[in-house]
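Purpose: get a first structural picture of the assembly so the mutagenesis plan has something to point at.
Setup: two entries, given in the order below. No constraints added.
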Amino acid sequence: MDRYLLIASTICFLAAVVHTAIELRRAVFHPLRFNFFAIGLGFIFQTAFLSIRGHQLERCPITNLFEVFIFLAWSVALIYMLVGTAYRLSLMGAFTAPLVLLLQGFALIAPIDSRHPVNAPVNSWLEFHASISLVAYGAFALACIAGVMYLLQERQLKTHHLHSIFYHLPPLTNLFAAITRLLWLGFALYTAGIVSGFFTGHPLPRIQVVSAIVLWLLYAAILQARHLKWLAPKRVAALCIIGFSAALALLWGITFTAELHPLP
Amino acid sequence: MNLFCVGLSHHTANVATREQFAGNAAAESIVRQAGCAETLLLTTCNRVEVYAVSDKQVSTDEIARCLTATTDRNTHNYAPPFYRYEDHKCVQHLFRVASGLDSMVVGESEILGQAKKAYESARTSGAVGPYLHRLFQRAFRVAKQVRTHTDIARGAVSVGSVAVELAQRIFGKLSECKVLVLGAGETSERTARALVSRGVTDLRVSNRSLDRARELAQMVGGQAVPFDDWAAQCREIDILLTSTSSETLLLTHDILAPMLRERLDRPLFIIDIAVPRDVDPSVNEMQGVYLYDIDSIRSVAEQSLALRRQQIAAAEAIIANHVIEFVDSISPGSSRRSRTADHSSLDENALRASQL
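Result (structure tokens, whole complex):
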């Protein structure tokens, strides 16, 4: 049953992606409302899936790589629903949907939904640490998407070759403002996630701690350079993409090592 | 009841011919005297058209005679430059006109305002009855739908509007942008006015002749800056519009580089419409600088027009649906006939679009 919900959710995101592709092909680009509703519906199915899975496990459903991917995809959609429209960046839906589709599609296809019997009692600090960190990843993902949009718009302006999508992308300064806010949001959540990790009462693997702090330092450096105006917006946008790629690699590593060496 | 449209436009007649038939304010009443129950006269710089409903057949020549400003109405054969559309073709033509598909600049929106004005004028004078009322209300709806659901009106097609469009794509709201106009020529003035109309409030003008700078500054609500100080302004401004008659480059990589270091997080949009150019093209390679010379602005305008032309098929499809619905609503059962006819006329329109 829960897997069907996830398939329904994935179909919604696929619909948004296909709709965008068709619109782009026809050089008519009006995906805003459709994409928003498709992502909204997909988000509802995701939430239902995570809720059912959570009740089955009697804990936050992030016990294996499959669930982590779904939770991350849910976080991306959540931040998009909360933040995307508020910044009048609804076109972000056209860019968000492919990322969520990729995450969920991979989770559904790859044989990574291995259920481990978890007998340990629920550690609320550990659950908070893991879930808040994943929501932070969602914000970083959206910053990465805004970065892609920025680079796309910037490239068109530099080369003087304007495509249909140019007229639908937000202005450069608005995109840069959105990148900055998303970075701050993600950084605040990620900081809370790292700090709460020290209260779990379990010794965390050193490699995970070091990697998480390196990632935290990377985002801190981006924000500091942005604040002190040391970096041009284009570089900040590019760093958002690099930062999220590093975050994904770290997430993979953490989940992989957690599955190999589960906490007692 | 016969619904028809008789007119001439930039497609069929040159301006000398068009002006012979434009500006006759009494045309509507004269057309009614010719036996039409309802009439509406649409006159713009590119077209003169009469939309009418009549019980009897009114010839194109009769309508043409009514439109002419001369008193000698009976001696000429006016028909050749005129076109005539009847019934569903008339409906389709009006929908195309209102949507900007028949305009010289495809997708321009001025025609919709002109059509609304013509309708209001005819309604006030009592020349419009229920038939034309429904037709024109539907045409306004169709035009709105076409603009909303296609990119037919997207993109700018003149120097001023391209500059404004690009500035908005870089900065969003222009109300907080600082603009420096370097050189006080006619194109600068028009572009400056376009920027002011979109919310720019901080506008500075610099020219070799300070008096001319003051004059332009006064006209566009800006302030004059001595010509020796213009380069220092690049630290503060967001948009530089330059069109001097200088024979040498005024702004080079070396001049701009130290100033950019102080404003790394703010883009600088440079519009160089001078020939020969005022700004070194290599400036465009610098971080956060977007340089557009007159050729690149023309290229953007051409891309916008090409984009609009790509939208014609989508717009025609919307119009075709509305024509069928409208014709069906006024004469049920005729939709099949009109549908067949629509396809053939759509082919004609597609042919015309390909010739644009």
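Residues 144 and 240 of chain A are 5 Å apart (CA to CA).
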